Amino acid sequence: MGGHLPLGYEVQNRKLLIVPDEAETVRFIFKQVAEGASVTLMIQTLAEMGAKGKNGNPMDKGYIYRILSNRIYLGEIIMGQESFPGEHAAIIDRAIWDKVHLALAANTVQQRSDSRVQTPAILKGIVQCRHCNRAMSPSFTRKNGRLYRYYTCQTAQKNGYASCPTRTVSAGEIEAVVIGQVRTMLRTPEMIVKAWQAGEAEDDGIQERDVAEALQRLDPIWEELFPVEQKRLVQLLVAKVNVDKHDVQVHLRADGLDTLARELKDIGKEQRA
Questions:
Q1: Which of 9, 147, 189, 206 is most open to solvent, judged by the fewest CB atoms within 10 Å of its CB?
Q2: How far apart are CA 44 and CA 261, in angstroms?
Q3: 139 to 120, 125, 128: CA distances (angstroms)
Q4: From CA 266, how far away is CA 211, in angstroms rounded?
Q5: CA Rg value for the chain
Q6: What are the residues whose beta carbons fall under 8 Å from the beta carbon of 3, sequence distance 6 or more?
Q7: What backbone phi and psi angles, to 5 degrees, belong to 3?
Q8: What is the pLDDT of residue 263?
Q9: Rounded CA separation 95/78 (Å)
Q10: What is the spatial distance between Cα 205 and Cα 218, in angstroms, rounded to a whole number?
Q11: Are 249 and 27 in contact (CB under 8 A)?
């Protein structure tokens, strides 16, 4: 066969045969993406597992996306723009392929929508005016070719700016404060214990140190996350943000800690498998 040999297969007597340990890595990648895992975070997890590409190098985003789009894992072969049943065994089934590609399509739509204002409104739906106790909606304007983003109190939107002392706040400034607090909380022992206790009831063998290591590795790679991935983490961990002209209060989401702990548990299970 021509082209590069895909991870998970080897050639013997001109036939593709499955390489078991590589195939498990491929299944892990598909399973994680199907469940909504961040590709950026998964890259670090794969590196910690010692998983490498067919070339012996650590996998990057491009390599993973090529795996996710390669129909050879369905047991098919590609000829031109079409695919046909092959003679080799499939590594994944149609159900997980479809689930992964639905997730990728949804992410593409979200990223295109977010790109209209360059940066997603990560606090949409959770930021409130502290004075009016009303939601604040994302908005933006352009001046001299420059984009300015805001969160505007709905009272001010409906009744005029004079009706609310908060009116609007800079989206970039408020988001920076919230992200800073989230990243600080991820580094604190108290947060680690809460996340661990949230998942402990599952009695699945996850240890406090496993959660601590996973939470702590989020911080140094935060800047590498896509904006949509940052938004997901903030909305997972933050229940509400109360804002006025002088203060920002961030309230954690208890069930978000539970969700995060369970996601970390699943990754931990795959690493130990």
A1: 189
A2: 17
A3: 11, 13, 14
A4: 11
A5: 22
A6: none
A7: 80, -175
A8: 63
A9: 20
A10: 22
A11: no
Task: Choose the most confident range, by mean pLDDT, from 44-53, 126-135, 208-217.
Answer: 126-135
Parallel, antiparallel or unpaired: strands 238-243 and 127-129: parallel
Two tokens at 257?
């800690």
> What is the tens place of the pLDDT at every residue in 110-122?
454 444 444 578 8
Q: In the chain, what are the domains?
A: 9-115 (3.90.1750.20), 127-272 (no CATH)
Q: Which residue has the tokens 């903030």?
A: 234
**What is the Cα–Cα distance from 233 to 164, expressed in whole angstroms?**
30
Rounded Cα distance, 271 and 173, in Å: 38
- β-strand partners of 250: 241
Entry pTM? 0.53
Tell which residue, 271, 231, 18, 270, has the closest CA to residue 120: 231
- DSSP, residue by residue, the chain: --SPPPTTEEEETTEEEE-HHHHHHHHHHHHHHHTT--HHHHHHHHHHHT---TTSSPP-HHHHHHHHT-GGGGTEEEETTEEEE-SSPPSS-HHHHHHHHHHHHHHHHHHHHHHTTSS--TTTTTEEETTTTEEEEEEEEEETTEEEEEEEEHHHHHH-GGG-SS-EEEHHHHHHHHHHHHHHHHHSHHHHHHHHHHHHTT-S---HHHHHHHHHHHTTTGGGS-HHHHHHHHHHHEEEEEE-SS-EEEEE-HHHHHHHHHHHHHHHHHHH-
